[in-house]
Amino acid sequence: MQDLIETSVETATAVELAGVSKRYGDVLALDRADLTVRRGERVALLGPSGCGKSTLLALIAGLEEPDGGALAVGGATDARERLAQCALMPQRDLLLPWRSALDNACLALENQGLSRAEARRRAQPLFAELGLAEFERARPSELSGGMRQRVAFLRTLLAGKDVLLLDEPFGALDSLTRAALQGWLRDALDRERRTVLLVTHDVEEALLLADRVAVLSPRPGRVLAEVAVDLPPGTRRELVVSAPFLELREQILEALE
Ligand code: ADP
User: Fold this and answer.
1) Pocket around ligand 1: residues whose beta carbon is below 6 Å from it?
2) Which residue of 14, 192, 217, 220 is surrounded by the most CB atoms within 10 Å?
3) Which residue has the least CA distance to atom 25 on ligand 1?
4) What's the rounded Cα separation, in Å, for the pair 197 and 209?
5) Per-residue pLDDT for 7 more than 50?
6) pLDDT, tens digit, for every residue of 127-162?
7) Residue among 90, 95, 92 at smallest CA distance from 142
């Protein structure tokens, strides 16, 4: 197992799970899950509720340790070293209510030792690039759910980590806002090429945002199938009705059954 992980450093593997199991008391959350994610690749983890998707992210991020198997991030197996390379975006935005949107995003930079002024100088251009220009001074309570998730994503991006772990980033939003944000995130990720693991239970979201979809079984979670997503460029509306998109969707729905 260790050999496998050491080799992976040379082959530019960002995240590697080999036979990873995790148990919480009597509940076996994950059962021998295998997954390899290359640097710069975007992988969606798709599976039914409770199948261990969030557990998988917590393990990768070094917040939990596996009970069996091996896992590494950038070749590092130690939990603290894994954590140092990952930025985790949870379902709920967790923005600080007393800080402006800009200063919430700046937190990630201040945590790296930058002064508030320097952090603002760095974060400001990204606000404009990602369509948030007019919201810098707004407090979280003045923003919609979709806006708050965008700010939370920006903060995740500004943490400057190689691996982004996005845990159902749009799970709490209505379907229209969700569709708009999927297009937005697709563009944002195209600009900032990072390694991304995206947890979702939405097949369309997985296809729109990922290069590859890993389909998990119901609990205990295990990677059942992996589907490469190679779609032509296009807007969300064009893609979701295109033949290749519908074919992939069918393939994934079959694997989920
Ligand atoms: P998903 O993200 O796919 O919905 P989770 O990873 O959140 O699934 O949970 C998988 C299983 O593990 C669930 O049955 C959940 O109740 C259990 N679980 C997750 N975290 C804990 C924990 N900290 N303590 C006890 N049980 C947990």
Assistant:
1) 24, 27, 29, 47, 49-55, 219
2) 14
3) 24
4) 10
5) no
6) 888 788 889 999 999 998 888 988 999 999 899 899
7) 95
pLDDT grade for 201, boundaries at 50, 70 and 90: confident
Q: Find where tokens 């996005």 sit.
A: 166
- The single residue listed with the structure tokens 């894994």 is 82
- For ligand 1, atom 4, the nearest C-alpha belongs to 50
Distance 61 CA to ligand 1 centre (A): 15
> pLDDT at position 1, please?
47
pLDDT digits (tens, 9 = 90+) for 177-190: 888 888 888 888 88
pLDDT higher than threshold 70 for residue 8: no
> Which is nearest to 211 in space by CA: 190, 192, 191, 180?
190
Calpha distance 105→123 (Å, rounded): 7
How many whole angstroms separate alpha carbon 150 and alpha carbon 196?
16
- Point out which residues pair with 89 in neighbouring strands: 166
Beta carbons within 10 angstroms of residue 43's beta carbon: 24
List all residues 6 or more positions away from 257 whose beta carbon is below 8 Å from its beta carbon.
none
Edge to edge, the sheet with strand 42-46 lists 86-89, 163-167, 195-200, 42-46, 212-216, 223-228
